[in-house]
Amino acid sequence: MVLSFDLQSFILRARVLKLYRQSLRAARRAPSHARAELENTIRQEIEKNRHCDDKQRIRFLISEGLEKLKGLDEMLDMQGN
Questions:
Q1: Residue range 62-78: average pLDDT?
Q2: What does the similarity note say (predicted)?
Q3: 27 in a domain, yes or no?
C-alpha cells in the first residue's frame, strides 16, 4: 500500500509530534506521584487519534491539545513546578 503524503500532511504530522514532545516535557514537571498517570494520559490521547486522516479534525485536535497544554503549564507554574 502506498501512502499519499502531501506537504500539508507532513506539516500536520510535525505539529502533532511537537505537541506530543512538549506535553511529555511538561509532564516531567509534575509531582512524581502524578507524573506516570499524566504521561499515560498524554500517550492515550495521541494513540486514540493516531489513525485520523481528516485534516480539519487533526487541526482541531492540535488546537485543543495546545489549550490543554497551556492549562497544564499554568497549573504547574502555580504549584511551583
A1: 95
A2: Belongs to the complex I LYR family.
A3: no
